[in-house]
Amino acid sequence: MNNQASNLDTLMKTVKQKGKTKFIAITSGKGGVGKSTISANLSYTLAKMGYKVGIFDADIGLANLDLIFGVKIGKNILHALKGEAKFDEVIYPIEEGLYLIPGDSGDEILKYANQDILDEFIEDSQMLNDLDYMIIDTGAGIGEVTQAFLNASNDLIVVTVPDPAAITDAYATIKINARFKKEIFLIINMVGSEKEASNVFSKIKNVAHKNIPDLELHLLGSLYSSASVKKSTKYRELLCRVEPLNNFSSEMRCIAKKISSKVEQNMLNYPKENFMSFFKRILGYL
Questions:
Q1: Is the predicted pLDDT of residue 192 greater than 80, yes or no?
Q2: Does residue 76 lie in a domain region?
């Protein structure tokens, strides 16, 4: 066990030394499925595991991560792209190892995110260059801007709930993104039982297997609906912080461990890049 722990520690140091940020986009087929709540709690959990994590609020028109984290923001990344703020001024520390980058209108962001501006940012800011993870909280649906963020990310997590319309929209999102991703991950939120979660995943996986045979679809986890979850949503609280022993928090730790394990196994497949090179890749998809 000691040898295994030592080897894992060496492996993680290697990942960080190579400066490979893993960009994970979290999306959904429709709104109202808890995507932003999951994004916020997942990034917080990864940070508590000792990783350096950034979370970018790219949920165009519905950006609310600042409320969930309980931080007051004055400017967002659009101000920096317009030259109205330095890039460091739109990075908000949540706590040790966790940073929020608030977004704005996606069309506006990409309008100002040109090559020269991004090159200047790389020179001006090094704060995000050694991130282990960047969580991208995208908008729901399959709009052009949202799709650019999904295409540019290394990994994609689709969130759905046990609702026929949500399941249909989740599958549509999976099908579209299967053109760019060999594997896609699924989180089923607001379930009433493990059996319900299993049935939802089986339904989506069976349809995907028939129509997208080359896609690997993985279930990352299922999150139960509870009074605590509803309360945290109502009052915009970070549930994993206020109730770390809650079932939701425990399952979120399991999901985070699955993600980190997957990354450790495939670290050589990740390109060496930072937040600004990620933006450059987004521009290439538009």
A1: yes
A2: yes
Range of the domain at 277: 19-284
Binding residues for ATP: 30-37
- Predicted TM-score (pTM) of this structure: 0.87
Euclidean distance between CA atoms 230 and 269, whole angstroms: 38
Q: What is the CATH number of the domain that holds 82?
A: 3.40.50.300
pLDDT at position 115 over 80: no
Query: Residue 14: inside a domain, yes or no?
Result: no
Q: List the binding residues.
A: 30-37
DSSP code string of 46-72: HHHTT--EEEEEE-TT---HHHHHT--
Q: Which residues pair with 225 in a beta bridge?
A: none
Is 213 inside any structural domain? yes
| CA of residue 233 relative to chain centroid, distance | 18
Domain membership of residue 237 (yes or no) is yes
Question: pLDDT at residue 6 above 50?
Answer: no
pLDDT at position 169 is 95
H-assigned helices in 49-154: 65-69, 77-81, 106-112, 115-124, 144-152
Beta-bridge partners for 25: 136, 156
Amino acid sitting at position 160 = T
As a whole number of angstroms, the distance between CA 137 and CA 43 comes to 10
d(CA 274, CA 225): 36
Q: Return the pLDDT at 17.
A: 39
pLDDT at residue 77 above 70? yes
Domain count, the chain: 1
